[in-house]
Amino acid sequence: MAPKFGELFLKILLILCIIKSSQGREFSRKNYPYLKMASSFSLSPPRGYDYIIVGGGTAGCPLAATLSQKYSVLLLERGGSPYGNVNVSYLQNFHISLADTSPQSPSQAFISTDGVINARARVLGGGTCINAGFYTRASSSFVKEAGWNIELVNESYPWIERQIVHWPKLAPWQVALKDGLLEAGVSPFNGYTYDHLYGTKVGGTIFNKNGFRHTAADLLASGSPKNLNVLLHATVLRILFNVRGSKPRAVGVLFKDENGKQHRAILNGRSQSEVILSSGALGSPQLLLLSGIGPKQDLDKLGIPVILNNWHVGKGMSDNPMNSIFIPTKKPVEQSLIQSVGITKMGSFIEASSGFGQSSDSIHCHHGIMSAEIGQLSTIPPKLRTIEAARKYSKTKNDLPREAFQGGFILEKIDGPLSRGHLNLVDTNVDNNPNVTFNYFNHPYDLQRCVYGIRTIERIVHTKQFAKLTEDDSYSIEMLLNMSVKANVNLIPKHTNDTASLEQFCRDTVITIWHYHGGCHIGQVVDKEYNVLGVDRLRVVDGSTYDSSPGTNPQATVMMMGRYMGVKILRKRLGKRAGV
C-alpha cells in the first residue's frame, strides 16, 4: 500500500467527520494522583526505578499495578487519559474513536499492505478503550500451550473481573443472534459464561448497565500510590543498553514528552530491575527494532546501531480475518456491540453488532469505520478516490435518508489464522506506523473456515428469529452478499456482482476486528518467561508474544497476562513475602 494513498484515504475519512472533541489531556489529579503529564518528569528529583514499563495498555496497566504493590514502577504511555473523553467512555460513541484520525485520537489508524484499514490504541488503557467491550477467557488448550500455571491463571482472571467486568443486558439483535445460532445448529447453549466453550453463549462486557466503559486503566487504582508513577504523552524513542559485558543489558529508556523534549528514565541499581515492553503487537516489535534488536540488514539500511541481530523480530504477524454481512431491518434497531457469540468446532466465530448511537457532545460522524455510508467509498475505483470525489460524495450522502442504512451486521471471524505476515520499519520515527503485512487468507484452510462461517450466517439469517427483524425475509444470500460488498471498508478491489464464489467474497470483503498479534514469538524473540533472548533485564509482556489470539476476543487474557506476570515476578523475587 503506497503511503501517499493510505494518507489520502485517511483524509477522506476525516472529511466525513467534524472533530469537536479532544482526547483527555485534562484529568482530575485528585481522583488519579498517579497520573502526570510527561513534561513533569524533569521537575522531579532524579531517581532510578525497579521497573520501567513501556505502554500503559491492556497488559501494561495490570502489570504496573501489581508490581507497584512492592516496587517502584514508572509506566510510560504515549497517549493521553481516557477519563473525561466521551468518545471512549460511552458505548453509543464506540465508532467515533475509530473514525477520528486527529493527532489527539485515542486510536491511531494504519493500513496494512493487504489494503485493510486497522487501528492501534494510543491512550492509557490501550485497546480496552476503543474495542467492542466483549469479555471472554481463553480456551484451556490456549492456556496449556502457553505453559501458564493454571492455578495462577485462575487467580488472575477474577482479579480483573471483580474490578471492571459486567454481565450485559441482551439487546434485541443479540437475542436474535443467540436464538438464530441455536436454530442454525451452533449448540449447545452454554448460558452466561466467561469460559470458551463450543456452542452458543453470552459473554461478559466492560460496559456497565448504563453503557459506561471500564478499562484496563481502572486497574491502576489497585496499585500502590507511593510506588506507581504514570506519565501520559510519554513516547519512548528507544531502549538504553549497557553493552559492556557478555550480553547487552537494558538500563533505561529515552522518551519524549508532549512538548517534544527528551528525557532519560533509568533503572535503579538492583540486580533484578527491568525494562518491560507492553506496547502491543505493533509497538513492541517496532520499539525493539528502533532500539537495535532485529535483522541486521534491515537495521543497517536505516542507520540503526545493532545491539542484537535477530531475524525473527517482527516476523509471524497474524490478524484474525473478519467478514461481515449487512442485514437491513424493518425499522431502526437498538445499538449493540458484541454480547452473544457462536463458537464452532470448525474454528469460525459468529458475532454481531447493530444500530447506531451518538451522544450530542461527541464528534459528529454519521457512522463508524465499518458503516455502510462510509463504506460506499470502497466502490469508487482507487484512482478516482480524490479529495474532490470525497467532498462530492459527502454532500450527496447528506441527502440520503437515514433509513437507507438501518440494520445490523453479523460477523464471522477466523480463529488462529494459519496465514502469516511480517512487520518492518518505514523509518526511524517512532510516531510513524511500521509497514505491516498480514497475508489474509494466504493459507487455504483459513479460506475454507471463512466459507464455513459465511454459510453458517446464511442459515442464521433465514431463521425465524431474524425474519421478525429483517426488512424482507425473501432476501437471497446473493443479495445480502452484494449489499455487504458495497458496505465494506477496505482498499481491496471489489467484484460487486460476483458473489457466486464465497471464496471471492471472503477475499474481497476481509476486514479486521483488531485482534492482530505476533512479532515477538516465544522461542524466537523471547523465552517462556518473556525475557528477550540475547539481552538482560528486558522483557515483553503483551499480545506480540502470542501465536494465536486467545478466545473469541483477546482482551480478557491480555489483561490477565499482565496480572499473571506481575504476580509471578513478585513471587520469584520475594517468595511468600510477595503477599499476592
TrEMBL record:
- The entry marks the following residues as binding FAD, namely V123, V236, W514, H515, G543, P554, Q555
Q: Which cofactor does it need?
A: FAD
Segment forming the signal sequence:
1-24
MF terms per GO, please? flavin adenine dinucleotide binding; oxidoreductase activity, acting on CH-OH group of donors
Domain Glucose-methanol-choline oxidoreductase N-terminal, chain residue ranges per copy = 280-294
Tell me the superkingdom of the source. Answer: Eukaryota
* S-S bridge residues: C450-C506
What keywords appear on the UniProt entry?
Answer: Disulfide bond, FAD, Flavoprotein, Signal
The entry assigns this protein to a family as follows: Belongs to the GMC oxidoreductase family.
Protein's recorded name: Protein HOTHEAD
Organism encoding this protein: Dendrobium catenatum
